[in-house]
Amino acid sequence: MAVLLAAVGLYGSTAAVAAAPLTVAQAVATQNGSSATVRGYVVGQPTATTTVIRSGYPNDYALALADSASTTSTSSMVYVQIPSSFRAAWGLRSNPSLLGRQIDVTGSLSAYFSHPGLTSSTAFAFAGTTPTSTTTAPPTTTTTGSSTCESYYTAACGKSGAALKSALNGIVRTQTKLNYDQVWDALKVTDQDPGNASNVKLLYSGLSLPKSANGGGADQWNREHVWAKSHGDFGTATGPGTDIHHLRPEDVSVNAARGNLDFDNGGSAVSQGGGSLADGDSFEPRAAVKGDVARMIFYMAVRYEGNDGYVNLEINNSVSNGSQPYIGKLSVLKQWSAGDPPDAFEKRRNDLIFSNYQHNRNPFIDHPEWVAAIWP
Fold first, then answer.
1. What is the mean predicted confidence (pLDDT) over 111-138?
2. Across-strand partners of 209?
3. Cα–Cα dist 358/303, whole Å
4. How confident is the model at residue 131 (pLDDT cuts 50, 70, 90)?
5. pLDDT value, residue 118
6. DSSP designation for 150
7. Within 10 Å of residue 254's Cβ, how many Cβ atoms?
8. How many whole angstroms separate alpha carbon 341 and alpha carbon 61?
9. pLDDT tens figures, 55-69
10. The Endonuclease YhcR N-terminal domain covers which part of the protein (predicted)?
């Protein structure tokens, strides 16, 4: 359910931290940047200045709190920013049962989504219990799906740059490997059309084709290597050639039109490409999957570092990489990732690969902010 509000004015003075938790009404009226603990009921997730939703949560980034669990007026809510280290335990996408629970959150009384808020949060707890701070692990969750920095990504916590890239490589290279025939069956599950369980959704074209229409003929779908297999010459042997984090169903003709082109903006419309463009040296996928493509490329560059018998794959800013183990264009891929954040289809796919097939994850779907942390 979406509810609307008018923004509330902010206060400019600095106040001392209250000894007891503030009510939400007090927090709304004390937006002065001071640190405080606020107690309130979780009433949804803010997704914009004037919108709070109570189902279909897109991510774990924010909470809306109110003094009553039945509150629907957002003028009586405070918006809580959830730092990455708390998202798996306190975000509604991973923990929808939090809706209606009373919790205590410590943070800065500052606007969030241009609305009275609590930002840079440092502790979360159910009301009346010991808070979870940034120096201790958040409570565990039995919800499957989104991985947490505190469990799957423990070795990567607090790192950036080359250290983060190395840590993530150490995590995601532990995987179950498929052969190329097994990829067919896996893609029929990971890329199932949400609107038709008998079909798969094609990456570049956006078309929906029967799962049974896989092959090499006209109007069939085949296995597209998003990191073109000739960029490093790894072929279809078990390893990078069969890693379904970057293998996607695609129309045979559109797959051929992409070929081994690097990624960049511009070009002419690709026939049946759903808005995708191509020219002599680059390919631009349709807008709805630009971020998906970028995050698959970032995954490959982290997973394959040349330290376990496979080729070392790297991203550069070129569109003339040929058979070298490089792909571009880094600056454009970063823009695509930022402009098209992970959606429900991409997250579900990541979860299925982790739980049913390779048992590793794409870190940039779980933590899109790590793109800039590694490639500033």
1. 73
2. 200
3. 13
4. low
5. 95
6. T
7. 25
8. 13
9. 888 899 999 999 998
10. 22-126
304: left (phi over 0), alpha (psi -120 to 50) or beta: beta
Q: Which of 221, 301, 235 is nearest to 263 (CA)?
A: 301
Mean local confidence (pLDDT), 226-239:
97
Cα 295 from chain centroid?
Answer: 9
Q: Which two tokens stand for residue 159?
A: 């790192």
Tens digits of residue pLDDT in 281-339? 999 999 999 999 999 999 999 999 999 999 999 999 999 999 999 999 999 999 999 99
Query: Which residues lie below 8 Å from residue 346, measured CB to CB, with a gap of 6+?
Result: 291, 292, 295, 365
Residue 126 is predicted with a pLDDT of: 87
Closest by CA position to 124, among listed 66, 56, 63: 63
**CA 81/CA 199 separation, integer angstroms:** 38
70 backbone dihedrals φ, ψ, rounded to 5°:
-100, 5
Cα dihedral across residues 151, 154, 160, 165: positive or negative:
negative
Identity of the residue numbered 241: G
Report the distance separating Cα 248 and Cα 203, nearest Å: 6
**Could you tell me the domains of the chain?**
24-133 (2.40.50), 154-374 (no CATH)
Predicted confidence (pLDDT) at residue 203 exceeds the cutoff of 90: yes
- Residue 273, CA distances (Å) to 203, 242, 367 in order: 9, 24, 29
Q: DSSP string of 74-134?
A: GGGEEEEE--GGGHHHH-TTT-GGGTT-EEEEEEE---BTTBSEEEEEEEEEETTSPPEET
Per the DSSP assignment, residues forming a β-bridge with 249 are: 223
